[in-house]
Amino acid sequence: MKADNLRRYRRFCNVTGGLFSDNIVLVYGVAISIIIGAATSGKSALALSIAMLFTLVPTMIISSLLSEKIDYTAQIAITFLVSMICLIPSSYVVKLINPAIFETLGIYFPLVATNSAIIVKSNQYKHSKKPLYALTDGIISSIGFLIVAIIIGIIREYFASGTIFEHQLSIPIKITAMKMSFAGFIVLAFVTAGANALNRLIKTVIFKVENK
Amino acid sequence: MAEKIMEFIFIMLAAVTFENAIFTRALGINQIIFKIKDVKSVLTFGSIITGVLTISNIINYFLNLTFTYFLVPNYIKYTLFVISIVFAYILISFVVRKFYPDKYNNLKIMLTMASFNCCIQGVLIISVLQNLSLVMSIAYALGSGIGFTIALLMIYIGKERISMLNVPKAFKGLPIMLLYVGILSLAIYGLIGHQLPS
């Protein structure tokens, strides 16, 4: 019974790993520059996540379809051109959140197309022809990115301007420096440490249940 | 002439220090740069970044000049940045494969990670936004590449020292390194007076 539970948990982790235990930001440590640079509010974090979904999923599918068919250099070049092309429609969706959002995102919006998450996740599919699996993994990884970006965006927005998704809340002191890069590094460090601690706790509980 | 040379040196120095890609804009930071194991790899990675930055900046300057004439929308400009990087990547891959075929397999992944790094596109965008001339954009690209390499060396030295300390378990690995880079970044912000030079 216990072994069944563990097996079920592991299967669950394999499918949903991108959300937490295999999160692209917290575990792989990629795509952190756009989070640090641009996830300064809930809305900008949401905008970045939409752009990530639009670029990551097609590039992963393309990588799995091109696997071992063409030269590595050409495959990488095609992947990034596809990523940039896919970023264009995402800008129209992002505009719906707030037409002035691009001023907040600044240079970081186009950087979504060349972030390291695309190489790392595409390289995972360079030897496997599983486009359907790539599609699922891409969507789950993008949701994982969304969760981290939103947490960091909300923390920084609250401390910098006393708002969450532009809704005013009470705050004794505003720390405007929270919108700067160094604060992004520090907040992300604490969020990653929290996730590590939670991950360790889950593993300890499972180990204890197994050995009872 | 002397003024131009001074301007070239000033732009380069500013890109190395006050506008350091990693510490002021968090460009190009990821887990991979925390995992570099020796000084030789740090210098190789930094040299590749500097090379790709300079070549793609030159290509992008001419592409941007041509397309600005036709008043193209922003998303075409974004695509031009990636096209410039792809050209530089293919060119450097070709040169390494042709002249150092035995080293190509070892350098392949590093070359890809260095070429398709946020730092490269970020620097291209900033060069275009600041309307830099060809010579000055080369200075900015060279300075950014050297600044990136120095930042990598600082991160590597910090990592070596931190590995000897008793760090809380939850902070081991990525979190402590992010905290370290965050504190270095805070020091640079203090130096420039809390805002990026325009």
Radius of gyration of chain A: 19 Å
Instruction: Determine the number of helices of chain B (DSSP H or I, runs of at least 4 residues).
Output: 9
Q: Strand count, sense and closure of the main sheet of chain A?
A: 2 strands, antiparallel
- Low-confidence stretches of chain A at least 5 residues in length (pLDDT < 50)? none
Strand-residue proportion of chain A: under 5%
Detail the topology: elements first, then pairings.
The complex is a heterodimer of chains A (212) and B (198).
Chain A: H1 2-16, H2 32-38, H3 42-66, H4 72-97, H5 101-105, H6 108-111, H7 116-124, H8 131-161, E1 163-164, E2 167-168, H9 181-210
Chain B: H1 2-16, H2 21-25, H3 31-34, H4 39-69, H5 74-99, H6 101-115, H7 118-129, H8 134-162, H9 174-192
Please provide a written account of the structure.
By secondary structure, chain A is mainly alpha-helical. Chain A has nine helices and two strands; from the N terminus they run ααααααααββα. Chain A has helices at residues 2-16, 32-38, 42-66, 72-97, 101-105, 108-111, 116-124, 131-161, 181-210, and strands at residues 163-164, 167-168. The longest helix of chain A is centred in the last third of the chain and has 31 residues, at 131-161. Chain B is mainly α and 198 residues long. The two termini of chain B are 24 Å apart. The model of chain B has no long low-confidence stretch (mean pLDDT 89). The chains are: A mainly alpha (212), B mainly alpha (198).
